[in-house]
Design brief:
The protein is mainly alpha-helical. The protein is 78% helix and 0% strand. The protein contains seven helices and no strands. Helix 2 runs antiparallel to helix 3 and helix 2 packs antiparallel against helix 7 (461-503). The radius of gyration is 56 Å and the shape is rod-shaped. One of its GO terms (cellular component) is cytoplasm. Residues 46-129 form a coiled coil. Residues 365-375 have a biased composition (Basic and acidic residues). Residues 12-21 have a biased composition (Polar residues).
Length: 504
């Protein structure tokens, strides 16, 4: 029986937030044959599906509204970010200009300070020299008076010799005074220059001492940082080794799980084939036994009975084949739905593996950087720059990383009627098939029995006992096979999700 599925049900949403779920339409199926019939749908199921549909629509609308709000907030934040960036650039330009002005003013002030110091020292030296010269002049004046008195006493002895000696002494004293004044001025200028140099050397010594203290402090801080980096490198190496082990374990477990899934699938296909064959044979034998138990006479019209039995067997086998095909199609649809869930889980696992690999790469890069820092000698710190203005607070932009997706547990068992209604498949019941499979043959048999052409007889007790003995074994075997098939996916699913939770 061919099943036409016009409207498949998508199980995912777009990244934009809009759903791909189409609105449910009224199914208009033309009966392909007189055998097809619809499954009776109860009011409770219809109300339940209607409620689910309304909930899905409400969720979709709420997601759309949330998306619009998020987009508005994002645009507002981007505008604020652009305005702040423009302000930041303006402040940077102003800061650069002010720094240039500051450097110019600082150089000018330093030059003025040096000139002021030189002039101050020169003034001090000149004042000292003036005071010394005044003292010397006063002493010389006193000595000159004494000498004049002595000369007046000796005037009578030798006037000519004394006059010549006095003229020569006065000329020599004037030249000596001029020379002394020149030397005093030169020495005062030299002393002022030397004193300015001494002051500058004192300032440089003080600055060097401060720089030495800062360098010692920086060296101690760098040693502490070096120790911390060594500890972090050791921890990162341990984490790297652990993550590599975990990755290897995850890969091995994934391979083992894939092998187990393939084995389970092959076993399931084989068991399905065997169970279909057993079901078909069982149903054929059951139908034959019912016809035999009704008491068809072997004496009267044995050829017709055999022909009828053969036709009935053929029809029964065709019905069983069609039923099995229908069941297989339903099972394939269920497997498709489960595969979609499995694909989503595999995508989540792949994303997690990618995240782990990116973390490994970042850890290795950090370890390499730490090793390079350890190997490289510590560079001397540059001179302290002028204090900068307070930095702007960092903007909290929306993160582009996708959110962590939770794992979805797939359903181990889906109700057949709910799945058929959601997909749009209409299943035919067994009674309708039996009634509509071969209406002509069954009506001929019933009319023949009513007319009295066939005489019913009692079945033998031995055949009944044999059938009663044989049927329970086959039925029990089939029930065991079906039970194992139903339990296998649950166990496999529990093992699979248990391993995932442990490894995660």
């Amino acid at each position: 029986m061919s099943v036409i599925n016009k409207h498949p049900v998508p199980s995912k949403l777009n990244t934009n937030g809009t759903s791909n779920i189409p609105l449910r339409r009224t199914m208009q199926r033309q009966p392909s044959s007189p055998i097809s019939s619809k499954i009776p749908v109860t009011e409770g199921q219809a109300v339940r599906w209607k409620q689910k549909f309304e909930e899905a629509e409400e969720r979709r609308k709420s997601l759309l509204t949330e998306k619009e709000k998020a987009l508005r907030n994002l645009t507002d934040i981007e505008k604020k970010y652009l305005n702040l960036q423009i302000k930041h650039e303006q402040l940077e330009t102003e800061l650069f200009e002010k720094n240039e002005e500051f450097t110019k003013l600082s150089t000018a002030s330093k030059n003025l300070y040096k000139e002021y110091e030189t002039l101050k020292n020169q003034y001090e030296t000149e004042t000292r020299a003036m005071t010394g010269a005044l003292k010397d002049a006063s002493q010389w004046y006193r000595e000159n008076k004494e000498l004049k008195r002595k000369t007046l006493l000796l005037m009578d002895k030798d006037t000519v010799d004394e006059g010549v000696d006095a003229g020569e002494g006065e000329s020599n004293s004037e030249t000596d005074i001029e020379n002394l004044n020149k030397t005093i001025k030169q020495l005062s200028t030299e002393i002022a220059e030397l004193q300015t140099e001494v002051d500058s050397l004192k300032q440089t010594e003080f600055q060097t001492s401060e720089d030495n203290i800062r360098l010692t402090e920086d060296l101690e801080t760098e040693r502490q940082k070096n120790i911390k980096l060594e500890l972090e490198l050791f921890e990162l190496k341990k984490e790297h080794e652990q993550t590599l082990r975990v990755m290897e374990m995850m890969k091995k477990e994934m391979k083992e799980l894939q092998m187990l899934e393939e084995e389970h699938r092959t076993n399931l296909t084989n068991l399905k084939k065997e169970s279909d064959a057993h079901k078909r044979e069982k149903n054929v034998l059951k139908h034959q036994s019912t016809l035999i138990l009704q008491g068809l006479n072997e004496s009267e019209g044995s050829d017709n009975c055999l022909m009828l039995l053969q036709e009935i067997e053929d029809l029964k086998r065709t019905l069983e084949d069609e039923r099995n095909k229908h069941d297989e199609e339903i099972i394939t649809l269920q497997e498709r739905l489960e595969d979609q869930d499995n694909n989503a889980q595999i995508e989540v696992l792949e994303e997690r593996l990618k995240l782990v690999e990116s973390e490994l790469q970042t850890a290795t890069e950090r370890a390499e950087r730490a090793e390079e820092k350890l190997k490289a000698p510590p560079a001397p710190p540059p001179p302290p720059p002028p204090p900068l203005p307070p930095m702007l607070p960092p903007l909290s932009l929306p993160s582009s990383d996708p959110p962590a997706v939770p794992l979805r547990r797939r359903r181990s068992k889906v109700a057949l009627s709910d799945l058929a209604e959601s997909i749009g498949v209409q299943e035919n019941t067994q009674s309708d098939k039996k009634q509509a499979a071969a209406p002509g043959v069954n009506e001929d048999i019933i009319n023949a029995i009513k007319a009295g052409q066939f005489t019913l007889r009692k079945a033998k007790k031995e055949k009944e006992k044999q059938e009663q003995k044989e049927q329970p074994k086959a039925v029990s075997e089939l029930l065991n096979i079906l039970g194992s098939l139903r339990r296998a996916p649950k166990k496999r699913q529990s093992q699979f999700y248990g391993d995932l939770t442990v490894n995660a």
